[in-house]
Q: What sequence folds into this?
């Protein structure tokens, strides 16, 4: 069961990260994308503040519990660092990984806001056009 959980959490967490980065691209997923971003911000900032770890991620916390139960040691502080080091085989300083990770979240937020504002602008043009 632990091996299944390890696999599941790796796939789910990877998909979640990709959704944060690119979920804004699919119109019918945009509200879910914003929800995912809000959940991430709550975890990183509010729960992180409570836990004393800025950027806290419950998925990583649960995943690392599973990996420790499987006997894995020397886990990095973040899932992204784990993927970059273990799955891709590259080694960057933790600070670089953290900055790139935070930049990815900011990118996801920015793109979501841009797409939303563009949608509002197009909606107001359509309603003005219909009214005239």
A:
């Amino acid at each position: 069961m632990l091996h299944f959980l390890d696999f599941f959490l790796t796939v789910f967490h990877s998909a979640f990260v990709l959704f944060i980065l690119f979920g804004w691209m699919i119109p019918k997923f945009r509200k879910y994308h914003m929800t995912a971003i809000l959940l991430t911000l709550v975890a990183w900032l509010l729960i992180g503040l409570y836990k004393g770890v800025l950027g806290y991620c419950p998925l990583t916390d649960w995943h690392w519990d599973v990996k420790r139960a499987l006997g894995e040691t020397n886990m990095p502080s973040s899932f992204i660092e784990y993927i970059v080091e273990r799955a891709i085989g590259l080694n960057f300083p933790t600070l670089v990984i953290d900055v790139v990770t935070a930049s990815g979240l900011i990118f996801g937020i920015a793109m979501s806001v841009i797409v939303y504002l563009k949608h509002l602008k197009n909606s107001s043009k359509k309603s003005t056009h219909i009214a005239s």
